[in-house]
Design the sequence.
């Protein structure tokens, strides 16, 4: 039996130097009700960067790029994770495609050998609080190592001809986008998607088109063709003024200085959903805009369990496809994050773990 494994460990909030390659990590063993998963592939997400730097802290008021390389000099240590202070060392990685390699007590041994995708955001067993939430790679060790564990109910079998790294591009970004879309109740309407070239934004394009929506994406001109190929009906340059009172729904991942113009782009009775703030979390709201135009503002983090199982069904049916820009080996995770931060890609950057 293998007792140690290789992986990348986050030793604390800060810069890329906080990512440490280890070859002597203990292989995690499944507790009752859990499975052990041999990780085949993972991917990079904004949340990996934000968790590493501690951007989720209320002490941080700038955009996500402001501390992406070097962190915030300890200012966010007290509350830098999704749910407050993190425990270190931590193995990050919210995306996971793998094979069930062992099961804990109470789990059917027939599950061993199943190819699975792990639910990246979930309600932990026994947590009866309001909208309970934990995240792979934040509150629980994730996929940036050769093995991980998960509650068996969060390891969803998947049948697909896609490669491991292609499948690993789906869980975090696509479930975040699907969660936003389900929260908004999006139908065959006009939708505005900010930050459309990123993992969540590019996923939202496909998922919105799947529901019959007319999609307007905001990005840079150099990425317009790639976003059109994903299904965008229209691509607006992020520096161009937005049309007013045009959209039924806005899926916003950017925030920052352009936030008011996104609200102004909504029709009366429009719905705004956010699950990110890469341009900055602090915005100004004129309450008259909110109530005189009957807008609905929604945050989207917690996901009912059907969001992820719905997503796996879309993958198996071929209704959505991976948008994979590049792939790095796990040992090269620092370089993968540097490429991610350069923002020259569309979609996801994959991480090959096995082999």
Sequence:
């Amino acid at each position: 039996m293998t007792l140690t494994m290789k992986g990348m460990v986050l030793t604390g909030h800060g810069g890329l130097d906080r990512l440490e390659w280890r070859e002597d990590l203990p292989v995690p063993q499944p507790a009752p009700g859990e499975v052990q998963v041999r990780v085949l592939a993972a991917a990079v997400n904004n949340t990996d960067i934000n968790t590493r730097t501690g951007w989720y802290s209320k002490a941080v008021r700038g955009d996500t790029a402001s501390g992406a390389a070097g962190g915030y000099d300890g200012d966010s240590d007290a509350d830098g994770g999704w749910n407050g202070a993190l425990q270190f060392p931590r193995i990050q990685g919210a995306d996971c495609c793998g094979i069930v390699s062992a099961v804990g007590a109470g789990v059917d041994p027939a599950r061993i050998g199943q190819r699975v995708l792990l639910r990246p955001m979930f309600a932990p067993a026994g947590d009866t609080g309001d909208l309970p939430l934990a995240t792979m790679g934040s509150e629980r060790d994730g996929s940036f190592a050769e093995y991980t564990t998960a509650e068996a109910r969060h390891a969803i079998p998947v049948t697909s001809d896609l490669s491991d790294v292609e499948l690993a591009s789906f869980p975090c970004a696509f479930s975040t986008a699907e969660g936003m879309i389900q929260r908004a109740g999006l139908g065959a309407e006009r939708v505005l998607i900010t930050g459309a070239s990123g993992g969540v934004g590019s996923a939202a394009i496909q998922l919105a088109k799947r529901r019959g929506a007319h999609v307007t994406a905001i990005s840079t001109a150099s990425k317009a063709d790639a976003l059109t190929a994903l299904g965008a009906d229209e691509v607006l340059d992020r520096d161009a003024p937005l049309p007013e009172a045009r959209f039924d729904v806005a899926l916003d991942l950017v925030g920052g200085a352009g936030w008011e113009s996104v609200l102004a782009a909504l029709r009366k009775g429009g719905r705004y959903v956010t699950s990110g703030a890469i341009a900055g979390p602090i915005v100004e709201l004129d309450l008259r805009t909110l109530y005189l135009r009957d807008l609905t503002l929604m945050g989207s983090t917690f996901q009912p369990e059907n969001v992820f199982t719905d997503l796996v069904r879309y993958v198996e049916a071929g209704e959505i496809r991976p948008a994979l820009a590049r792939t790095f080996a796990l040992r090269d995770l620092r370089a993968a994050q540097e490429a991610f931060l350069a923002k020259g890609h569309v979609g996801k950057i994959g991480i090959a773990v096995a082999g």
The mean pLDDT is 94. The chain has nine helices and 17 strands. The longest helix spans residues 171-184. The longest strand covers residues 34-44.
